[in-house]
Automatic annotation (TrEMBL):
Taxonomic source organism: Aeoliella mucimassa
Protein name as annotated: Uncharacterized protein
Domain of life: Bacteria
């Protein structure tokens, strides 16, 4: 037997006098194609004819050899399946983006204002949702006043349901000449020119990014993602006046969510992020309480105020600028501001709580 390295062996099933399989097993060579990596490469010369197994197996139907045109059809079908899968995924993403944008447009909190071509304009109001609060604008045609009403909804509610708004809408529509939740673009009655030219539109708010970026861009609603350059959520906003030529002094409003807003008036200086009125505001060099509109007084807050246990009362929104953590000795604390009315109401609340706790329980 002479071995060479150009052929892999197999037995022609049509030939006689087959070589005993023991000879192949002793050599570690299989006579059938089990694995291509285990078969040795050799050529054996005997009296009977040996052929290569790559040529006889297709003739016997042992395995299928794909033709060139079949390979092209398989590749084309795989490509079409891949394209179809990609198209379905893109369609699903597009549908989700459209639904999210529609939900944001209808539910996210935004600031509205009615402006007439004659120069008359109303105060700003809120419309939409922020967390559990929904705001609805109301317009009284008899008094030409634009205001908003709020309603608390459960956490699991993702939209305005009839069961939550039906009663509120019914009470508002029972009032004479009251428009409940008018959409943006509604023409209202102007008290100055007596035409229905008072157009309800969204307030243009400019967001100012952090100090490292300082990029200014248009802020749409409370669900905006943030700065298009760095992606950070802004903490400073600017609301330009309706008439830029007016020389009215600007106000800088400080919100409870650590947001500052520069606007024309603190009376409607709503935070563009959370919709709350300012906790305090500054006009020129003076600071005022956002609830009582009194001038704030300086005091020294303790340096360890973060370690002082303090349970804020539920009525904290009535006196937000009280001395909740006490007062530190002179020049030994942190400079802060407090409102005299807030402090007096907070002390009165503490006395009432102490009196209630001293009473024996029944």
């Amino acid at each position: 037997m002479q071995l060479t390295t150009d052929k892999r062996l197999a037995i022609d099933s049509h030939c006689e006098n087959r070589f005993p399989l023991d000879a192949f097993w002793e050599m570690g060579i299989y006579s059938v194609a089990k694995t291509t990596g285990f078969i040795a490469w050799a050529e054996i010369q005997f009296s009977h004819r040996w052929v290569n197994w790559e040529s006889i197996c297709p003739a016997l139907g042992i395995y299928f050899v794909p033709q060139p045109w079949s390979r092209i059809s398989v590749a084309a079908s795989c490509f079409c399946a891949m394209v179809s899968r990609v198209v379905r995924q893109l369609a699903a993403v597009l549908v989700s983006v459209i639904s999210i944008n529609f939900q944001r447009e209808t539910l996210a909190m935004k600031l509205l204002r009615a402006i007439c071509c004659c120069g008359y304009h109303t105060r700003m109001v809120r419309s939409g949702r922020h967390h559990r609060l929904f705001w609805f604008p109301l317009f009284s045609a008899s008094q030409s006043v634009l205001c908003d009403v709020s309603m608390v909804v459960p956490d699991e509610s993702d939209s305005l349901e009839d069961e939550y708004t039906a009663d509120l809408e019914r009470r508002c529509t029972n009032l004479e000449e009251v428009r409940f939740n008018p959409p943006v673009g509604t023409a209202l009655h102007c008290p100055d020119c007596h035409y229905d030219s008072l157009l309800l539109q969204q307030v243009e708010v400019t967001a100012i990014c952090k100090r490292d970026c300082r990029h200014e861009y248009a802020w749409g609603d409370s669900e905006d993602s943030g700065c298009p350059l760095c992606g950070d959520r802004p903490h400073a906003f600017r609301i330009d006046p309706v008439h830029p030529h007016t020389a009215a002094q600007r106000s800088k409003c400080y919100c409870r969510c650590s947001t500052t807003t520069e606007t024309s008036s603190p009376l409607d200086g709503y935070c563009p992020k959370c919709g709350a009125l300012p906790k305090s505001y500054q006009v020129g060099s003076r600071r005022y309480c956002g609830v009582h509109h009194e001038k704030l007084l300086p005091y020294q807050m303790p340096t360890n105020h973060l370690f002082i246990q303090h349970t804020p009362p539920a009525e904290v929104h009535q006196f937000p600028l009280a001395k909740f953590w006490g007062e530190a000795p002179h020049h030994s604390g942190i400079d802060d501001w407090y409102c005299l009315t807030c402090e007096s109401r907070y002390q009165q609340w503490r006395k009432e709580q102490e009196h209630a706790d001293s009473q024996p329980s029944r």
